[in-house]
Amino acid sequence: MLARVFKEMRQVRQEPVAGRRRWFDDDMLPLELIVWYDGAGEVEGFQLCYSFGGGEHALTWRLRAGFAHNAVDTGSTGPFGNLTPILIPDGAVPWAELTQRFAASAPTLEPALRELVGARLVEKKWRGFQPPSARGKFSLIADHAERTDGVSLAGAFIRFIREIRGR
Questions:
Q1: Could you list the residue range(s) of the whole structural domain that residue 17 is in?
Q2: Choosing a second label site near 8 at 20 to 30 A (CA), which of 24, 113, 127, 154?
Q3: Considering the domain boundaries, does residue 2 fall inside one?
């Protein structure tokens, strides 16, 4: 039986910015890990992509923003369809299953990277994350949205509105 481990993909397209990107894939589990490094070589974020039977999802962690959980919308079919996949906000994170599957795949990662990703998963914190282009008027809500398991940004928004109204 083949072992469940991450294997690094060697030919990863790099963005024209300082830093680099690494990509790991587990052929046995539906799990991929993408890690972004800044220009100094420090981890500035990672993304776990998975499919546990409910469609493809991405759990993204960024140093300054925390976690965001998204479903992958693969686009629409038809004569005028757009098949470009995009990330759309999604609700509850399957923390226990994701943490367990990451642990099963992680032995081949460098210890520092394995510990960093594992520690973030165990913290089980969720914070609303907006891409930089969407920040601005929504950043106050996103910054207010640090919550634990299964709370969507919509739920955090409702709490935020109630708090500012004094209810």
A1: 7-165
A2: 127
A3: no
Which two structure tokens, joined as six digits, stand for 2? Answer: 């083949």
89: Cα within 13 Å, side-chain hemisphere: 16
Question: Hey, which bits of the chain come out as E strands?
Answer: 7-9, 20-26, 31-37, 43-51, 56-62, 66-73, 86-89
Q: Say if residues 142 and 131 touch (Cβ distance below 8 Å).
A: no
Cross-strand partners of 36: 21, 45
* In-domain check, residue 35: yes
Determine what percent of the chain is predicted with pLDDT higher than 70: 72
Neighbours of 40 (CB within 10 A): 8
pTM here? 0.69
User: What CA–CA distances, in Å, run from 95 to 41, 78, 139, 140?
Assistant: 28, 35, 25, 26
